[in-house]
Write a structure and sequence with these properties.
The complex is a heterodimer of chains A (507) and B (357). Chain A has 507 residues and is an alpha/beta fold. Chain A has three domains: 244 residues, Rossmann fold, CATH 3.40.50.300; 168 residues, P-loop containing nucleotide triphosphate hydrolases (Rossmann fold), CATH 3.40.50.300; 68 residues, no CATH class. Chain A has 18 helices and 22 strands. Chain B has a single domain, classed as ABC transporter involved in vitamin B12 uptake, BtuC (Orthogonal Bundle), CATH 1.10.3470. Classes of the chains: A alpha/beta (507), B mainly alpha (357).
Chain lengths: 507, 357
């Protein structure tokens, strides 16, 4: 099956450079796709996967580098142009028209015509035929929206195929599918592969990578880390290459152990908490005064767990217990009322209110909990703001400066202070140190561990394993939307945790 | 990847800046300047524009006239400001005006009875009951809008479009499309009465403005409205009841519109379901925009909206006084809107800067 090492790649991408203002997104990135292969592109968030895909599909034009399709140099100018050249893409969010029929969606813009009129009969027949090839038998005259997401994705694939694609790119196609739907998708991909198509599959699910791929390209920091045959690369090695642990451990900052504090009674416990397509039933326990680390790759269910615990999303099933009593959180308000705070990983969209001042941002959660009518007196607001600006070392011209003008690290500190002002019993920190400099990172972590020793429980989520290992009293590792292991401090080291994350620990 | 920390933007303490620069930077500078320019034009072109005189204990003059006529618009603009600050819009204001005026007028009606040989008009329904019913209808309208926007997640313009059509339709249905005349003296006081020598309508507007301003200042309402308008997701995650807040602003806007409706119908001593408050929502939106509140939501200025309403009324007054044919009124208004919108456009600003550079 992998005789293609001697074959000619259908798509050969080399030396791609792409720069955005202030950020080098791709440096010397490359990719080779062979016909009759499923090739998986892997990498952490920010590794450059999406940028590379966008270069291939004409969304971005690279500054340097060559793209050769079937031996010919091409330079896709737009998604449409890339499609005409033979590179079709199916995105995570199906970007078809839900109100049009399945058949119309497949042939939109290329309706078959007869005497200058649209030949509806032929369009429906062709559409049904295409879908049958994908093992999908549905009424193609019904609107797309009447079918589940998995079928919609099949329709998107059918559309891609009907444009006679040589290369099919699937960008995170499985992130909103359930297990059975994933299997359906995979069987279709296999039959397409056996038909000679080159398929590029982008995902961050390790199990799925090994279930479907023939070849894997790993990206890290905007570069091609390497290309491997699937059978040659162990899961551990894959995770190692994605994360680049060897490099990361060196930057390990001075330790700040949160140890010593004997874990108190259980504060929060979940019983089979789940949400379809987001999180498999999860049992989690957070003790009082404990710093619990949630480790795992992006999409493993870490953030999803945090959102369910905070009431930002609603669970389909299972229960949350606070101090032993069953609670259900329909909105963040409910969780806040029970002493939970949540710093989202998406600071800009889910945290900071950019036009408002540091002071206003800082007192927002406290004010919201007190209610609309009991306004915090301005004097008290200023005291609180000044207090936390000093405590956390927030660099700002004044407490009346709009938070949007602060640097990322300082914004993060303000948001942390927003929750600390409510004196939470459990603080959920989702990637609190993402995108901020080393010093601010260290300051935030120091402060957090100090709070923990004072009795606050902390649920700490981070992609940076050394950090999680360093500060956590206990670590729960997540993989593919479920918890797959729980470890006390000291039970895991860098390589052991990689085993678990990669899914080899249990084997 | 390590993102470099930007040094915090150096902002000089306001006290160190020259007074003039401070004035220029004030968000109310542009609306106040626009109003001043209009008044200056009036001063130069219309003789005796600023003259005020007292006749029969009432203050008369062009200025009083402008402010008095702007009263319903100012009310509508106060309500619209809060809606717009939450990223919303309410285009059903005119319909609510028509509906509340209709309900009040129909209930009050008025019949002539002879009392000691003198004809006296009495209300069909006690006036307070009628006014309460009219306001109740307006509040229901607001609840409806709020429920569609916050509950069903409809786009505000679409949600309120429904009531814009249905509200006026209902008013026309109630009146059979006829004008309902009111014969009951006390009702007229609201729209054309005088208190302490000034039109009573102004006291209503002032009261609503002061109450709203106090509410914004002494509760967390202003903060929450801004937070929801700037970043609804973050506001919800911070624990703000975003849905309840959105329902509130639509109810509040409808209450303002309801009061404006009572005022208008009291002023003309009748209810005209076809024409009362027609296009008032557009003037209200314009007033809010002229006042410097962005339609994108977030930061808002209540005082700005009042000034915006005054600009619109002054403009209308100027056009009429100068003998410009009324048909030109709309065009002139359009030009003003265009200029204001352009001055708020970021693209235009950067274009301007590039040319200047």
């Amino acid at each position: 099956m992998l005789a293609s090492t001697t074959a000619v790649p259908v798509l050969d991408v080399t030396g791609i450079h792409k720069q955005f203002p202030g950020v080098k997104a791709l440096t010397d990135a490359g990719l080779r796709l062979y016909p009759g292969e499923v090739h998986t592109l892997m990498g952490q968030n920010g590794a450059g996967k999406s940028t590379l895909i966008k270069v291939l599909t004409g969304v971005y034009q690279p500054e340097r580098g060559a793209i050769r399709l079937a031996g010919e140099a091409i330079a896709p100018r737009s998604t449409q142009h890339a499609q005409e050249l033979g590179i079709s893409t199916v995105y995570q969010e199906v970007n078809l028209c839900p109100n049009l029929s399945v058949a119309e969606n497949i042939f939109i813009g290329r309706y078959p015509r007869r005497f200058g009129m649209i030949d509806w009969r032929r369009m429906r027949r062709d559409a049904a035929e295409l879908l049958t090839r994908l093992q999908v038998n549905i009424d193609v005259s019904k609107p797309l929206a009447s079918y589940p997401l998995a079928i919609q994705q099949m329709v998107a694939i059918a559309r891609a195929l009907s444009i006679s694609a040589k290369v099919l790119i699937l960008d995170e196609p499985t992130s909103s599918l359930d297990e059975a739907e994933v299997q359906l998708l995979f069987s279709v991909l296999r039959s397409l592969r056996d038909g000679g198509m080159a398929i590029l599959f982008v995902t961050h699910f390790i199990d799925q990578t090994y279930a479907i791929s023939d070849r894997i390209t790993v990206m890290r920091n905007g570069e091609r880390e390497g290309e491997y045959l699937c059978g040659d690369l162990s899961r551990l090695a894959l995770v190692n290459k994605m994360i680049g642990v060897a490099a990361d451990t060196q930057e390990q900052a001075p330790t700040c152990m949160a140890q010593g504090a004997a874990a108190g009674p259980t504060f929060l416990r979940t019983r089979a908490l789940a949400r379809r397509g987001v999180l498999q039933p999860l049992d989690l326990e957070v003790k009082q005064g404990e710093l619990l680390g949630l480790a795992g790759l992006l999409g493993s269910g870490r953030t999803e767990t945090a959102r369910l615990l905070f009431g930002a999303d609603k669970a389909d099933s299972g229960a949350i217990e606070i101090d032993g009593a069953r609670r259900s959180f329909a909105t963040p308000r409910d969780a806040i009322a029970h002493g939970i705070g949540f710093c989202s990983e998406d600071r800009k969209h889910e945290g900071a209110i950019l036009d408002l001042s540091v002071r206003e941002n800082l007192i927002l959660a406290l004010q919201a909990r007190q209610g609309l009518l009991r306004a915090i007196p301005l004097r008290r607001q200023q005291e609180l703001a000044t207090h936390y600006v000093k405590q956390l070392g927030i660099k700002t011209a004044s407490i009346e400066t709009p938070i949007g003008t602060l640097s990322g690290g300082n914004q993060q500190k303000v948001l942390l202070a927003r929750w600390l002002a409510t004196r939470p019993k459990l603080m959920i920190l989702d990637e609190p140190t993402r995108g901020i400099d080393v010093r601010a990172k260290q300051e935030i972590m120091d402060y957090v561990t100090k709070l923990c020793r004072k009795g606050m429980s902390i649920l700490f989520i981070s992609s940076e394993l050394p950090e999680v290992l360093r500060v956590s009293d206990r670590i729960v590792v997540m993989r593919d939307r479920k918890a797959c292991g729980e470890y006390q401090r000291g039970e895991l080291d860098d390589s052991a945790v990689l085993h678990v994350i990669a899914g080899e620990g249990s084997q | 990847m390590i993102v470099k920390e930007n040094p915090p933007l150096a902002i000089q303490p306001a006290a160190h800046r020259p007074l003039l620069a401070q004035a220029f930077a004030h968000p109310l500078f542009r609306p106040v300047a626009a109003l001043a320019v209009l008044l200056l034009i009036d001063f130069l072109l219309i003789p005796g524009f600023f003259r005020l005189e007292i006749k029969d204990g009432h203050l008369y003059g062009s200025l009083v006239d402008i402010v008095n006529r702007a009263a319903p618009l100012m009310l509508a603009a106060i309500g619209m400001t809060l809606v717009i600050a939450t990223r919303g819009i309410d285009i059903s204001v005119g319909a609510v005006v028509a509906l509340s005026g209709t309900v009040a007028s129909m209930l009050i009606g008025g019949t002539m009875v002879m009392q000691d040989g003198v004809p006296v008009y009495v209300a069909d329904t006690p006036m307070l009951v009628a006014l309460a019913a009219a306001m109740g209808a307006a509040l229901l309208c607001g609840l409806w809008n709020g429920a569609l926007v916050a509950g069903l997640g409809l786009q505000p313009i679409v949600a309120t479009l429904i009531l814009m059509v249905a509200g006026r339709g209902l008013a026309q249905l109630l009146t059979d499309g006829q004008i309902v005349t009111v014969y009951y003296q006390p009702f007229f006081f609201l729209g054309s009465g005088y208190l302490l020598g000034l039109p009573f309508a102004l006291f209503v507007v002032a009261a609503v403005f002061v109450v709203t301003a106090l509410l914004l200042r002494h509760t967390a309402l202003g903060l929450f409205i801004q937070a929801v308008g700037i970043n609804p997701t973050a506001a919800r995650l911070a624990g703000i009841r975003t849905a309840a807040l959105i329902v509130f602003v639509y109810v509040f806007a409808a209450a303002c519109a309801g009061m404006a409706g009572l005022m208008i119908s009291s002023n003309v001593k009748s209810a005209d379901a076809n024409n009362a408050g027609l296009m008032l929502e557009l003037d209200a939106i314009l007033a809010v925009t002229l006042g410097g509140t962005s339609l994108a939501g977030g930061k808002f200025s209540l005082a700005g909206s009042i000034i915006g309403a005054l600009i619109i009324q002054t403009l209308t007054y100027t056009i009429y006084s100068l003998g410009v044919p009324p048909e030109v009124n709309m065009v002139v208004k359009a030009v003003v809107v265009f200029l204001v919108c352009i001055s708020q456009s970021d693209q235009f600003k950067s274009l301007w800067k590039r040319r200047a550079a």
